[in-house]
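Structural prep section.
Before we set up the soaks we want a predicted structure of the protein with glutamine in place, mainly to decide which crystallisation condition to try first. Input record follows.
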Amino acid sequence: MELSIGWLYPNLMSTYGDRGNVICLQRRCEWRNINVVVIPLDRTTEADKITLVDLIVGGGAQDRQQEIVMRDLQGTKAETLREKLEQGTPGVFTCGSPQLLGHYYEPALGQRIEGLGLLDLVSKHPGINAPRCIGNLVFEITAEPLATELKKLWGDTPIAIGFENHGGRTYLDTVQPLGKVIQGYGNNGEDGTEGAFYHNAIATYSHGPLLPKNPFIADWLIKTALQKKYQTSIQLSKLDNSLAYAARKAMLQNLGLRNLY
Ligand code: GLN
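Run finished without errors. Recording the tokens verbatim:
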């Protein structure tokens, strides 16, 4: 089997280390003898190339880079990406990326950045003097059917552990939250929601990067992408997750969340 991973604007949206999500997906495929190819989706990419990918990863960026990305992600390119996600192509979108998948992002300085309008949410930066949302982030994934599927893969309640660093605050309208905050700010530090989930698109403020410490999410993305591509049920072989378990336990201990491990 083969899997192609589309990586959104790697040179512009990797400020916070989310390339680690791509590496984690690559390794967890290679360890299972799944051929994997990573395709950069950037300013040189024609729209039809976006249709070829099986899974999409988008990382985080500073306001300025987000504005550059959205100047490029227009017209057919934007429509193709929107259609891919509407058709259920799985993806993980971190921080600046989901802000651009919503209706708009109002940065600290400059004009409102119009988004793809795929996710029914808006994001607003409260201004350069407002404190950023920075710190460890722990949340329970509650979005359905994702949470049920993750419980099957992980064998436990899907608690995600990561790190957030954003000035923008995100407010959901009809789109369901990805989860509920246990520790940290999440979408806005007010309503206890974190991220969003739409079809098979995972939107989150959690850097870390997210996937290495939460391998069940990586496996869900791989499994979902392969099932959609090959139109058959896929059972991924088990991998040794002991390092991830150890990292999670250390983080939860540091955060005083002993009841979660
Ligand atoms: N520039 C956006 C903000 O500050 C996104 C930051 C990020 O991607 N970590 O909210």
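Observations: The chain is about 35% helix and 25% strand.
Flagged for discussion at group meeting.
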